[in-house]
Automatic annotation (TrEMBL):
Protein name (database record): Glucan endo-1,3-beta-D-glucosidase-like
Keyword Secreted tagged: no
Every X8 domain range: 37-120
Gene: LOC120108425
Entry-linked Pfam families: X8
GO cellular component terms, A-Z: plasmodesma
Superkingdom to which the source organism belongs: Eukaryota
Keyword entries, A-Z: Disulfide bond, Signal
Length: 123
């Protein structure tokens, strides 16, 4: 008799699990397509991580805006440059949360991080 209870409990749990999965999938789609989102470096990120993120992102996307004389060169610091590069990568790859992971050093935000003449790309 106990087995029937376990089987029916498992059977009842299946629709709940499927509902959770569908909500999670819908939530991910809504956050990347329905709302404007950007990727920035976490303030707690260390210099080595920021450098690695900057190098990786710029090996995958065009980071010309970070060069001297371009709109996002200033402020000329690693946190700022890494954030711009990480966002360029995140935007180019479809704004999926995993495209802002960067070994847990990226942060997806709904607040536009643009500043001064540097307009963070949003596609």
């Amino acid at each position: 008799m106990a087995r029937k209870v376990e089987a029916s409990t498992s059977f009842l749990a299946l629709p709940f699990v499927l509902l959770l999965l569908s909500l999670a999938a819908g939530g991910a789609a809504a956050s990347s397509q329905g709302k404007r989102t950007w990727c920035v470096a976490k303030p707690s990120s260390d210099e080595a991580t920021l450098t690695a993120n900057l190098n990786y992102a710029c090996s995958q996307v065009d980071c010309k805006v970070l060069q001297k004389g371009y709109l996002c060169f200033y402020p000329d610091n690693l946190m700022s440059h890494a954030s711009v590069a990480m966002n360029l990568y995140y935007q180019a790859r479809g704004r999926n949360y995993w495209n802002c992971h960067f070994k847990n050093s990226g942060l997806v935000t709904i607040t536009d991080p643009s500043f001064g003449s540097c307009n963070y790309a949003y596609y």
